[in-house]
From TrEMBL:
A family per Pfam: Bac_luciferase
Similarity comment: Belongs to the NtaA/SnaA/DszA monooxygenase family.
Protein name per UniProt: LLM class flavin-dependent oxidoreductase
Domain Luciferase-like: 29-384
Superkingdom, taxonomy of origin: Bacteria
InterPro entries membership: Diverse_substr_monoxygenases, Luciferase-like_dom, Luciferase-like_sf, NTA_MOA
Gene3D superfamilies linked: Luciferase-like domain (3.20.20.30)
UniProt signal peptide: none
Keywords recorded for this protein, A-Z: Flavoprotein, FMN, Monooxygenase, Oxidoreductase
Amino acid sequence: MTLVGFMQAGNVTVYSGSWRYPSAELSFLDLGYYTRIARTLERGKFDLVFFDDRLAMPGVYGGSVAEAVRYGARPIKLDLAAVLGGIIGATSRIGVGATYSTTYYDPFHVARTFATLDHLSGGRAAWNVVTSVNDSEAQNFGLETHLGHDERYDRAQEFLEAVVALWDSWDDDALVMNRDSGVFADPGKVREVNHEGKWFRVRGPLTVPRTPQGRPAILQAGSSGRGREFAAEWADLIFTADPGLAVAQQHYRDQKDRIAAAGRNPDDVKLLPMAYAVVGETQAIAEEKERLFLDSYVHPVASLTLLSEVLNYDFARHGLDDPVTEAMIDSSSGIRGLAEGVRRHLGRDELTVRDLAAHRATLLQGPRFVGTADRVADQMQEWFDGQACDGFVLAATHLPGAFEEFVRMVVPILQQRGVFRADYEGTTLRQHLGLSRPAARN
């Protein structure tokens, strides 16, 4: 199975109460914090350490960032190029990935950043393609509101075409570096791309030669029909958020069919649900840890602050005990999907805003594997063997302990069962993933 360690370069994991956990390390402004975690994941032979990103503090709730700042609901996001650069210097095998937006960046900038990271890491870079979803980010880049769903994907499609053209603007053998003749590179093997489209004009060529992987690996997490089609065309890894096994199996079949329809080999694209592991020396210890995570450390307003950001809907207009009405649900497709999931989980139709906050706080967006190391491995293997996934994006309830426990306790069991590597066999991320190096499109 493929294993990805999910990180954020800030004060919390996806779990907004993680900073309050008693053993959590709070040195998130120190590069050593990230390099230590990356080395832990590399000891566990993870394919990739991946950093999510947002380009704004959560500011939809109440039209202000105050509650995000007050409760530590993801107010800190460091620049990821610097963080990944530090990790590259501290590791030798594990892949390094980061989120960069196609809505607020330009193709040349993104192409150069990830080509540079791929060279400096010896072929370990990955780019998570996102279209960005909320008004807070738009307002940090001179816009009032974000682009509509289809417009974002239209722009992303052209963005990828331009980036790939830039990555392929040097032939693999363009560098000559002949000191005697004085020829540095063959100009016949370095091309302008001259991309002209609706959204971008890019002359090229890129100022970075073709990389060790040919192209950095592409990650994507679109869940809508348009998002799944986009992922089928471009992604090497697809992140999913299916809470149950049956739903994940259906998603897996649908996405693999879309990949085949796009003319690609479905086995070359890995589907990875976001998952959480709470590991204990006994089942009772693991369940008590889980209870602490769920009941003790997340303020409901912190959860609503993040929900408001994700759904672009201001929950500050409601009290915690207000009912979730049809008018509220109709205002956002995201709220409808969330409400349907919470109803299924709770087994009742009547919901309050507090129920939505608790759902966000308790990490129910994906599978949560709780128990002894053997039990956690059993649950993971059930998904993997049941064709619900090709591995997992493992998120941490707290750092660095959650990853340390998983690597020390669960990874050896997965290795003994033959469902996870005993060691790295290659040096590049594509080799870890069993993917061939792509030929240039030019």
